[in-house]
Amino acid sequence: MAPSTAVLCRKRVSSITCGATLRFLAFSTGMALGMSMLLPTMTARAAVKPSPNAEDVERSEREAEARAAEVGRTTALLVQADGELDELAVAAEGAIERFNGERVKLERAQQAYRDGQVRLAQAGRRVEESQAELATFAAQAYQHNTGYARVPSALVGDGGPQGFMDRAGMVEVLAKQRAGFVRRVEAAQDVAEIFRKQMKAAFDEQSAATRRAQDAQRLAQEAVAQQQTSVQRIRVEKRALERRLDRAEARTAELKRARARAREEAEARTDPEDPGSAAVVSATSTERGALVARAALRWLGTPYSWGGGTTDGPSLGSGQGAGTVGFDCSGLAMYAWNQVGVRLDHWTGTQWTSGPHVPLDELNPGDLVFFARDTSNPDTIHHVGIYIGKDRMVEAPYTGARVRISSIERSDLIGATRPSG
């Protein structure tokens, strides 16, 4: 019996539905398989960071150079502030000693003034005593009829006229003696008064001088205290800038390593005859010189030490530098170039011949600039600095000074070398 129309329709619909379902499942399975095969590749691509390009490295270098310049400026300010602090401390010590001297003089003036007052009081007492004695003597003479009524005393007094004459003569002699004594005492009193006035004037002047010295001492000590605060502030600022510099240099080094790896991979695929390889060498040389300059700049303010400096940094010197940790000129150059893997001797003689000589109008940061007593004879070279650009260099100048930034424009400049190694 033939199937009914309804059954045929149900079978037809079922067939269509099953086909669509199968096609959808096949499509879904294909998509899933495709995505499962594509996903690792997409994940791997997402995980790979693009290598830094030259602009990234240059930008990071500029940032590091800016940080190094900030550190350099701050270090220079710190060196200057330290020097000013030393000068102010010396001035303060001088002011303190001047005050001490004026105070000693004041004590002596005070003692002299007191002595003068004592002598004046003694002279005054002697005058008073003499005046009292003279008054007593006059009264006694009057009582013995030797006063103004001379005629009655001569007639009726003891011993008659002769007794009167004897008494009168004695009184006159004694009166003269008393008068002379009084004059001497008064003269002594006048001298003592003059001396007292002189001592008073000297005491007043010394008091004023002592006050001036005390004010100078106070101002000098206040200046030292203010400068110490300024030095401490600059030191804190310098440490903060050094930390920023360290971070910038670390980032630059990381970018350079990544860039170097990318360049090595590129070079492995590059024809040795490719002229682009010269540009890579040139870029490497420039980067290396900049690192050398920054390595030297980090030691601004370090004491000069004759014979001082190793490939690891400042050290105790020898001879005059035996007690000082620091660098001499060739020690600083040796240290700076060692930071980029170039070994130099601790001697300007071989540093001069450590690489090609560079025309002075083609200097790059890191190049060594040399100075000689006779600019026509390299055997007379006596000093070396590390060029940092704009006719400036970092140098360890001489005993008693510190690593600093200076001009290369000197009459004893003989030439420059770009070490190679």
UniProtKB/TrEMBL annotation:
Span list, region Disordered: 259-283
Keyword Disulfide bond on entry: no
Hydrolase in keyword set: yes
Comp. bias intervals (Basic and acidic residues): 259-272
Gene3D superfamilies in UniProt: endopeptidase domain like (from Nostoc punctiforme)
Pfam families: NLPC_P60
Stored PROSITE patterns: NLPC_P60
Keywords: Hydrolase, Protease, Thiol protease
Ranges for domain NlpC/P60: 286-421
Domain of life (superkingdom): Bacteria
UniProt similarity note: Belongs to the peptidase C40 family.
Name listed for the protein in its UniProt record: C40 family peptidase
Organism: Actinomadura graeca
